[in-house]
Amino acid sequence: MGKYDQTLEQLLDVIGGKENIKNFEHCATRLRMILKDDSKVDKAKAEAIPESKGYFFSTGQHQFIFGTGKVNEVTAELRDYLGEGTTTDTSMKDDVYANLNPVQKFVRILADILVPLIPALVTTGLLMGIRGLLVELGMTMTDDVTALFAMLTDTAFAFLPVLIAYSATRKFGGNPLIGIVVGLMMVAPQLPNAYAVRGETADPLSIFGIDVYGYQGSIFPAIIAGWLVSKLESWLRTWVPQVVDLILTPFLTITISISIILFLLGPIIQIAESSVINSIIGLINAPLGIGYIVYAGLQQLIVVTGLHHSLSLIEISLLSDTGYNVLQPLGTASMAGQFGAAIGTAFLMRDQLKRSNMISAAVPTLFGITEPLLFGVNLRSLRIFAAGIVGGAVGGFLTYFFGLKATGMGITFIPGLLLYTGSIAALMQYIVVILVAFGVGFLCVRLQAKQIRSEI
């Protein structure tokens, strides 16, 4: 007799018998099942299974909520009851992906690659925000302390492509160590730093007439690198003789991958960045504040693409020409909208651990670091991300209404308060923009509470 015999009996009755199970696994709180015939499920009885706190169906999965710890025990007893060979993690993932539409698959792939990096990004983001705030407050640091602080705050972001290439290579089934090598080559010190090139304090290398520089802070190029490594390695092993496989396959995989990244993908990204810059300038100048609304709503989408670093060129140009920078409050409004959506989502979670993890991922946003929030919370559901977009758009309208502009650049959200200390009115307007954008994002999530719970 098992502890959950009654639970399992009713569970199997609800889903149409053990023969109807195609696959199953559990997450932190839920037993997830993929069935051969969904029509056999008795949804009315599904809500009354002993020990279960609820049931819902999403992305082809029947999900029974048992809670942290208990779900592990229920799943273990179910696996023992069904016998060996009933499921594997890999086949479950394949079955889950088969039930997703293309957009959901893309978002799921991003999450699988980037979510494991969140602990490092959360810690580094907090340290980076604290450093920026201390500097802006006028704290004087010796060169040695500055160097030590830079090591603590800049390392993870400077080598972000390495972390992403490693995770992406694992995700796509390649050798993660080869992914690390390619990622390191993308940020090698021999290449001019991407931030320095974009800030016009360094010149790119010119090879075959192509501008080449590092990929510091890049996201999508590193994901593509991981995909290339995985696919090339797999393809090469189909025809490279085994006697030279250990040497030739890694050599060709690394050489071809980094060549494509530097000489083919690099120019494409440069063209994309120029297009982004020109489009944003035209958008901001649109009449009736339309550009402000659209930009503040979608600015974090630019962050997702990894092209947001090029925005500093526009900010420099605006400050040089007018002495003011409108992108700073608009970017903050966009962050505040997504922050509100993330916090709203966290408070929808009944599981305390999941709620705590979501809040931890969201906190660096207060210091202008949004990648943990985006990839750890908001991109798990398009409803959450859309709620943040609405919040940011409303904040953008208020920015236009107030005529709010910053006197500097480089800091946002809470540290950005220091850019408005010259005017009490501007400071209060900046705070109002943040609070309203946050509130709208939070409210939009709460209005979709049932649907969002079913999706995450």
From TrEMBL:
One of its GO terms (molecular function) is protein-N(PI)-phosphohistidine-sugar phosphotransferase activity. The keyword Kinase applies. It is found in: Cell membrane. PANTHER family: NEGATIVE REGULATOR OF SACY ACTIVITY, PHOSPHOTRANSFERASE SYSTEM TRANSPORT PROTEIN. It holds the Pfam family PTS_EIIC. The keyword rRNA-binding does not apply. The chain crosses the membrane at residues 113-134, 146-166, 173-192, 242-269, 275-294, 326-349, 384-404, 424-445. Residues 5-88 form the PTS EIIB type-1 domain. GO terms for biological process: phosphoenolpyruvate-dependent sugar phosphotransferase system; trehalose transport. The active site is at 27 (phosphocysteine intermediate). It is a multi-pass membrane protein. InterPro entries: Glu_permease_IIB (IPR036878), PTrfase_EIIB_Cys (IPR018113), PTS_EIIC (IPR003352), PTS_EIIC_1 (IPR013013), PTS_IIB_1 (IPR001996), PTS_Sugar-Specific_Components (IPR050558). One of its GO terms (cellular component) is plasma membrane. This is PTS sugar transporter subunit IIA. Residues 108-456 form the PTS EIIC type-1 domain. It comes from the Bacteria. Keywords: Cell membrane, Kinase, Membrane, Phosphotransferase system, Sugar transport, Transferase, Transmembrane, Transmembrane helix, Transport. It comes from Fundicoccus ignavus.
